[in-house]
Amino acid sequence: MPKNRNTFSSLTAWRREIASRAVHGGWDWIKRTGAVTAEHPGRLRFRRIGAGTRLAFPQGTVFGEPWIELGDHCIIGEQVTLTAGMMPGLDLGTEPILTLGNGVVLGRGSHVIADTTITIGSDTYCGPNVYITSTNHSYDDPRQPVGKQWPRMEPVEIGPGCWLGTGAVVLPGARLGRNVVVAAGAVVRGEVPDHAVVAGAPAKIVRTWDERDGWQPPLRTPAPVPIPDGVTPEQLLAIAELSPEEA
């Protein structure tokens, strides 16, 4: 009897392993096939989608594509929402409403809601669940439900080279300069100058940089040492395997 039970358990485990490989293999195929690129846009007809840009599958809510421009080599994670206009089917005129520069990264679950213009500069990276919107509710009439009052819209501009941490929120009218860091969970409104770090809700500047004084307040850790030119992957692997005493 124990022998039969062991044989049955082995057969069950083998079947589960085969089924697991089939499910994972099938899901990998679905994700590859469902990804959106310039060569394979599927049902989405963007105003422009650049070379090397990829929207991972499954996509989030996407509408207003004729007014959305995506630059080259952008990475759009799973379940990312990209919308132009308040609802599908509107005529938004001749100019783009939502523009992503080259090399923009939008992390999984992020939302970019462009009821009026939003521009995200090249090489800006966003972590997961970042929320960028050009629209906010209004509360002019305290007797009416807030959701039924006409919203306010202001353009949003995010400069090139920025980094937006997980869960950051960028509100209507925000203008971020070049190479700005937005801390995780920060809520940004108004103008942020170049080379600033902001944190908090509402976000405040906690660090700045300029040519004369460098970082103020000074960084607490030294800058990482870049890998020298000409170092091969094999050499890096060999260094990683050394003990601290050997290194």
Overall CATH class of the largest domain: Mainly Beta
Span between termini: 58 Å
Radius of gyration: 24 Å
Order of helices and strands: HEEEEEEEEEEEEEEEEEEEEEEEEH
Shape: globular
Strand order of the largest sheet: 2-5-8-11-16-19-22-23-24
Supply the number of structural domains: 2
CATH architectural label of the largest domain: 3 Solenoid
Q: Any idea what the CATH superfamily of the largest domain is called?
A: Hexapeptide repeat proteins
- What is the tally of beta strands? 24
Helix count equals: 2
Which structural class should the secondary elements be placed in? alpha/beta
Please give the largest β-sheet: 9 strands, mixed
Low-confidence stretches: none
Short description:
This protein has 247 residues and is α/β, with parallel strands linked by helices.
Description:
The protein is of the alpha/beta class and 247 residues long. It has 2 helices and 24 strands. Its EC number is 2.3.1.-. Belongs to the transferase hexapeptide repeat family. This is Acetyltransferase. Keywords: Acyltransferase, Repeat, Transferase.
Topology:
Layout: H1 2-34, E1 48-49, E2 54-55, E3 62-63, E4 68-70, E5 75-76, E6 81-84, E7 98-100, E8 105-106, E9 111-114, E10 118-120, E11 125-126, E12 131-133, E13 135-136, E14 152-153, E15 156-158, E16 163-164, E17 169-170, E18 175-176, E19 181-182, E20 187-188, E21 191-192, E22 196-199, E23 204-210, E24 214-216, H2 233-240
Parallel strand pairs: 1-4, 2-5, 3-6, 4-7, 5-8, 6-9, 7-10, 8-11, 9-12, 10-15, 11-16, 12-17, 15-18, 16-19, 17-20, 18-21, 19-22
Antiparallel strand pairs: 13-14, 22-23, 23-24
